[in-house]
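User: Can you predict the 3D structure for this chain?
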Amino acid sequence: MERLNVHGQELRVQIRPGDGSGRPLLICNGIGEGLEFLQPLVDALDQGTETIRFDVPGVGGSPVALLPYAFPTLAWLVTRMLDELGYPDEVDVLGYSWGGALAQQLAIQHPRRCRRLVLISTSTGLISVPGGSWTLRRMLTPQGARRPDPIQRSTSAPPKPDRADDARVCGFSGTATGLRGIGYLHQLAAIAAWTSLPFLPMIGQPTLVMAGEGDRIAPAANARILARLIPHSTLRVFPGGHAAVITQAPEFGKTISAFLANR
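Assistant: Here is the predicted structure, written as structure tokens:
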């Protein structure tokens, strides 16, 4: 774990070293989630894959910014972070939920920095198939559901998708108040003013699109739209909801590792 000052913005970053056989994997997290959230998935990936995780401003250990970052600015900030970390060349990029929007922006805005793209439980942003009204209402408050995090649940069998599972994995696993609440609202502002629909056909990277069939936050219909409009894409739909990336981490990890290893 380390902290970087990138053009005046402090970012908390964690790197898991790899064996140097493939490209490093940059991981972009969901709304309100610190870099630890996807630990089960990181553990399930090929252990030779170097991973780069970070907290966006206002989330986890990264201080909140004075003003919200739009996705183009966030994508620029991330590339500067990679430069500071010593990754001047291309990396693979994985984005989950809200982080999937940032991953799409990185792929189109900085195509030479992104070799392969993995999009999990995400959408095209403002113009997309909406989730259930119950979960969407809860997304409008940073306080959230105040329920146990699904990482603490057993992952021995995929649970049936339900709205409680979905709520727990989209910024609702605890209480976000004060500065952390501001960071959450900044993330909401970014996604509310952004859509990838116009530029999806211009994404040239090989792309793996993954989703849970019962996702109530980012319905699987969004994954099908992404896979249809991104030219070199592969779609994989799993049982479960928005939490499938955690509850079925071994299956997700195996599929992602195979995709990234295909040079």
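The CA atoms of residues 144 and 238 lie 26 Å apart. The radius of gyration is 17 Å.
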